[in-house]
Amino acid sequence: MAGRKVAPREAFSRRPRTAGYFCTVRTADNRVSSVLGQYRLQLADRYEEGEVRAIVRSVFADRLGWDMAQFDLRRGEALSESELLKVYMPLKRLRAGEPLQYVLGTVEFHGLQLRVGPGVLIPRPETEELVDRIIRSGKVPGRIVDVGTGSGCIALALKNAFPSAHVLGIDVSEAALVQARDNARTNGLEVDWVRADVLGIDRIPVSSVDLIVSNPPYVPRSDANEMNEHVLAHEPHVALFVADDDPLLFYRTIASLACQQLPPGGDLWFEGHHRYTPSVGDLLKSMSFADVEVLPDLTGHHRFIHAVR
């Protein structure tokens, strides 16, 4: 990231008649273009201009219900005091480095609206790609286990795609499971949830399973200094990092459980670090999995591993 710029001095230019809240911005008027200008000024030391524009569009969509076309066409319009308050409220938290998804409280994942907050990993586009690959594989699993479910994004998306499947989500974090249960209720999807540490169990708590999927912790701790500040400061490290001396720990553990419980022809899917996915493929071959594939994400990086028991 470029050298840190000095944040613009704040001035109280107006006081909306709502909850005694002061907008800490200096604006000449209430136009949409002025709101965008203030976001650019106050977030310039954290985000590139294109990222700021995307953030403002997301704020307008979430707080005012505007789609992208409305935002682009109505930049010259003036907002009411209440509308101005709604779109400026997120700015203070964003300036403090909090991720946009936590500030807005929701994220769209594979057509589902999921709630996210501190203590739960924010779902990434790469994980949507993983779900897409599973759905497009042509198989229709009857029983699915998602290990390290977090917000429940994979488990819920697969339940939505395969309504007749029995889906189980496992996570070590009770905070994550609370969020996952809430997301299941909000989206009207029935999934079972179990709190368990996959590193400390002898078997997955199901009688049978056709598909095991996991997006486990895979970032080596030594990579922390290369990550964005807002990720390090706010997202749960337990869901992100693995020890430098054993980056394949979770893959080896989950694959061992899959060896015991997947039937012949059962599928194992992983998301992984682009540096280590080829090694995960080699590991699965050494454990007698068949049809092992290391697959790229949309950027061309090795990202996914698929194997058949």
Describe what you observe in this structure.
With 309 residues, the chain is of the alpha/beta class. The chain has 2 domains: 1-96, no CATH class; 104-308, Vaccinia Virus protein VP39 (Rossmann fold, 3-Layer(aba) Sandwich). It has helices spanning 32-43, 49-64, 68-73, 81-95, 100-104, 125-136, 153-161, 174-187, 229-234, 249-261, 277-286; strands at residues 106-109, 112-115, 143-147, 166-171, 192-195, 211-214, 219-220, 241-242, 267-271, 290-296, 302-308. A 7-stranded mixed sheet has the order 5-4-3-6-9-11-10, sandwiched between helices. Strands 1-2 form a two-stranded antiparallel ribbon. Strand 10 (290-296) and strand 11 form a beta hairpin. The protein is elongated, with a radius of gyration of 22 Å.
Summarize the structure.
The protein has 309 residues and is of the alpha/beta class. Helices cover 38% and strands 16% of the residues.
CATH topology of the largest domain: Rossmann fold
Order of helices and strands: HHHHHEEHEHEHEEEHEHEHEE
Within CATH, the superfamily of the largest domain carries the name Vaccinia Virus protein VP39
What is the CATH C-level name of the largest domain?
Alpha Beta
Count of folded domains: 2
The share of residues in extended strands comes to: 15-25%
Shape: elongated
Corresponding CATH architecture of the largest domain: 3-Layer(aba) Sandwich
**CA gyration radius, whole angstroms:** 22 Å
Binned, the helix content reads 25-40%
Helical stretch count? 11
The number of strands is 11
Biggest sheet features = 7 strands, mixed
In angstroms, what separates the terminal alpha carbons? Answer: 44 Å
- Kindly report the average pLDDT value: 89
Low-confidence stretches: 1-23
Assembly form of the protein: single chain
Strand order of the biggest β-sheet: 5-4-3-6-9-11-10
Main structural class = alpha/beta
